[in-house]
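Z., the sequence and structure:
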Amino acid sequence: FDPAFAFNLLGVSPFALVEVGDDKREMLRGNLSFDLGDHVLEVGLDSEVNTAVNASQFPGGYYFLRDPSGLYAALALGKDWSDPANPTPNVRRREYRIGGSFDTESDAYYIQDTWYVNDRLTLELGVRSESFANLNSNGAPFVEIDDQIAPRFSAVFDPRGDGKSKIFGSWGRYYL
């Protein structure tokens, strides 16, 4: 370590950030159900928009880094903020501000058949189609995925027929 090349921090720490943020979720769900005797058919849609707002910056918006070695002067990166009459740059003002509002939009359509085979056995068979888009702070998509087909199946068996116990299993494909 050569102290001639040491940088001296003036002001707040460059490792400290002040952050603000907020999350909002808006969801719409529609579902129609048709009772067809031993079968109940359901069709529906889900639509959701999740918004995340975040902003980060150094406390006060900036900090100063003093360069006693003159490296900033050699690279023309700094300015002497302490003495405007001194043309030798030896202090660098560092700013860091980042943030924006980011949305994720997702939509899904589904159909499901619940079949009451008898008093002890119920079967459910369904399929769901999902899509989503992650949007940058300008509203342009940077990730879009469509037609995620998610089949589902479940069975519930009541061995005594009294509703107090059950054996069940399910299989499905799920997307996040």
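Helices lie at 71-75. The two ends are 49 Å apart (CA to CA).

Let me know what you think.
H.
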